[in-house]
Each structure stands twice: as structure tokens, then as C-alpha cells.
Amino acid sequence: MQALESKISTAGRVLGSDILKVDSFLNHQIDPELMWAMGQDFAQHFAQAGITKVLTVESSGIAPAVMTGLALNVPVVFARKSKSRILAEEAYLADVYSYTKESQQTIRVDQRFLSKNDRLLLIDDFLANGQALLGLKSLADQAGATIVGTGIVIEKSFQPGRQAAAKAGLNNIYSLARIAAFENGQVVFDQTAAE
User: Fold this and answer.
1) Buried-exposed string 171-188: b where 16+ CB fall within 10 A, e elsewhere
2) What residues contact residue 88 under an 8 Å CB cut-off, 6+ apart?
3) Within 13 Å, how many C-alpha atoms sit on residue 130's CB side?
4) What is the DSSP letter of 160?
5) What's the rounded Cα separation, in Å, for the pair 179 and 49?
6) What share of residues in the chain are helix, strand, coil (percent, to 5)?
7) pLDDT tens digit string along 117-126?
8) What is the C-alpha to C-alpha distance for residues 167 and 36, in angstroms, rounded to an integer?
9) The predicted structure's pLDDT at residue 47
10) Are 194 and 21 in contact (CB under 8 A)?
11) How many whole angstroms separate alpha carbon 131 and alpha carbon 144?
12) 38: which residues sit within 8 A by CB, 6+ positions away?
């Protein structure tokens, strides 16, 4: 997606050899026009999949997921990372390791919001090591729901996330921007087709 790649090039900040900071438009401050364009792109790509819900994890996945749900006219469910006193006890749970936060978290979704009748589109902000996607897949599997596709805002194709997701059975992965490497503080985009 050209608009996203342009935004990454102009507003993204490379930290070290494997971290891209996109807090000025995706995960701290949000560019709503770009989110809407991304939601429309995801909706168009997965238009024939019979999606009944979009599933993401808080917090960075929420904005693109909501715009995708709006474009598809389906509800959006997000997995919470923290337990709340008002969250139902009957929740699907999955443990997810965050490499950027260097911590293990339990994500959860109230069982009322996912069912065996759902056809889910997973949306996530980054695909790097694949841990968030595997956690979302676990929640969907516990509900007996069918995952019909996965939308990724930014994929770091030099990391093993796509392979880990494919090994777990997530094969219909569509990424809006794919990064091949970070060189001298700059993003090098991966223009090859994803497998």
C-alpha cells in the first residue's frame, strides 16, 4: 500500500536493527485518514471471505481493525491484555510474549463475543515473530470459530512471523507493507510477493 509505505518512510523511526517506531500515526497518535484507507484495503482484499467479525488485540490493532470492521459492516472484537473487575469470568485466554515489551501477557476475550459460527478476520499492527497472531488463533480455536484471513499493517519479512503463522495453519496472510530490512536507519521495503 503506497500511502502506508510513504508514511512509514517519512514518519517512522528505525531503532536499532529490528524495531520500527510508528507512534506518530499508528500506535500512540493515529492518522484516521490512513486508518480508513487501510480498513478499505483490507475489506476489499477479503471481501469474498464471508467475514462475520474482525478480531484483534489491544491496543495498536484496534484502529485498523475498527476501520476494517466499518468497511465490512461487521463487529470488531479486541482481546484485552489486562484483567478487569468487570470482565466476565467466562473468557477465552491465551499467553502471548511481547518482544518489544520483553514480557509475557495473557490476552482474553469474553466468551459471549466469539462463537463456532464466526468467520474471523484477524488484524494486527505488526507481524514480526508471530506471537500475537498465535495468541489470537488460540482464542479463535477455543471458540471453535473459523479464521478466514489475516490482515497485517506492517510485516517485517526478515523475521520469522509469517513462517510461524503458516506452521500454525494461518495461510491467508495479507500485509499492507512488507519490510525487508533496516539499513543505516532507513526502511527497505520488500517488493516480492508474499508466499
Assistant:
1) eebebbbbbeebeeeebe
2) 110, 111, 112
3) 20
4) T
5) 26
6) 30, 35, 35
7) 999 999 999 9
8) 31
9) 97
10) no
11) 20
12) 1, 4, 64, 67, 68, 153, 176
Residues 6+ apart with CB under 8 A from 2: none
Closest C-alpha among 188, 157, 167, 175 to residue 46: 175
Q: What is the pTM of this model?
A: 0.93
SS3 for 80-138 is: ECCCCCCCCCCEEEEEEEECCCCEEEEEEEEHHHCCCCCEEEEEEEEECCCHHHHHHHH
| The dihedral sign for the CA sequence 175, 137, 114, 118 | positive
The residue-averaged pLDDT of 93-116 equals 87
* Under 8 Å between Cβ of 51 and 108: no
> 110, 142 in Cβ contact below 8 A?
no
- Provide the 3-class DSSP secondary structure of residue 40: helix
The pair phi, psi for residue 166, each rounded to 5°, is -65, -40
Reported residue count of the chain is: 195
Do residues 126 and 155 touch, judged by C-beta distance below 8 A? yes
How far are the Cα atoms of 30, 40, 58, 182 from residue 189, in angstroms, in the given order? Answer: 22, 22, 26, 9
